[in-house]
């Protein structure tokens, strides 16, 4: 299911082919109400340097897995024909997975956008895969839900069990092998309204922007992986995906930047995950793995880079043998031969966060980690070498705070297998999932958890991650300062929990010491140039203003009015920032008001 990776390219062609086609007209037909609508909207994330933070500046770590099927011709998560969606999401959360990467296709989103979502295609011999156990996927009239309705149920279940989601455009058209095609444009499909649609860059971008707009009120869906594994002409693409500063249509850097702008215009809080390409200036890599071009041509949306996360994929020799495995490889040789210049430098130099979107592979029936790490790689079988690579990558991600989503839960991934070995529904006991214990044990060490008590840490501020986990507020209230987590060597830290109305539990009603006097003595009625909400004074009101307010409160020495950082809040910025109950000083309520304004929950500032 995953892929058979092509040989690494020695050199990409310097020429660029431009392919253009007119985008079809889009419709605004109604679609089903979002069943997982969020009620707090306080779980959005943003980047600073190479790390991700919540709205109060608390560090987070995304540690999850892939669950495919919406990208395929079945138009639905695989194995819903074998297990109940409620049981399955609950079990995922209980195993400590705090985020799911969900592959979809542009075709799937297009049909949602025109208000005609795909019916679910059964692969069950009895042609009735969802009844009687998947009752959540049955409409009141007894019909099976369509693909978007099922996705909405997925979001609802994930919210219930404390799991976050981001989607990945795995292919232009719904196709079980669509990942082999290397571009985001250039395929066609027949839409559900009967029209033939060519997937152009414009269609791809518009469907993602529509999806961002439609789900912007639900912080269960936290981001968008713009395109799975841009790569070479292997798989049928007319040209290679390239990374440069040109306007060529196959320039992935330009396409991803333009698409990020379109998404962030609709939802400024969404994370934008951008994969690499296959080759750059003569250096080859895994499909989607090469981020060397970021050093020369970073993706810079108009609103800034606070929502950008780079997302390479990395695999071991069981998927495809590579030169860096043909020796007694170690963490250091992998860094020297491949990892560092290809993607690891982005974290080492604090440029941007990384999320390894896919890693994994087949393993032996039993694994002795210590023995494999000490063994000479040249004496190991391919599958043993694969496990050694997997352990080295896992350890490197933990040590360097690198986010990741394992490929995959499904066991029907042809060249990697999955974390699941079998799924069976029992009318008495419910869904029984048999996990690959050896593989999960390798993976489990890289799930975010408290250092001593081993409680899995979720990304939702209020909802605990399954039966064995805690919420983000739980961690920063009760664990971060006492035992820490399995990140940063168990470093203990403080934190500022977020309460359900979006304000904080520890912030005083006025700004911290270095700025309180200035705020309290300013007569705002005498100021004529107030632009409420524009804390950073860039003539725009967006999430960056909310982030600056929270930074100035949490760390006034750096970001307060007299702070040392270049982008600290100014005296005028403090006046602009006081936009909730104006005149009462700058608090986290002002940041919340800005978020409400950007989400169109309120029509104007200040919020009285």
Q: What does this molecule look like?
A:
It is a single chain. The chain is α/β, with parallel strands linked by helices. 27% of the residues lie in helices and 12% in strands. It has 16 helices and 19 strands. It has helices spanning 85-94, 106-113, 147-161, 201-214, 252-266, 293-296, 331-348, 369-374, 382-399, 437-444, 472-479, 513-521, 543-554, 556-559, 571-577, 588-598; strands at 46-48, 51-53, 59-60, 63-66, 99-105, 164-171, 188-190, 196-198, 221-225, 271-274, 279-280, 283-284, 308-310, 355-356, 403-406, 420-426, 430-435, 456-457, 469-470. It has an 8-stranded parallel sheet. It has a 3-stranded antiparallel sheet with strand order 1-2-3, with no helix packed on it. The longest helix is centred in the middle third of the chain and has 18 residues, at 331-348. The protein is globular. The model is unreliable at 1-38 and 502-528 (pLDDT under 50).
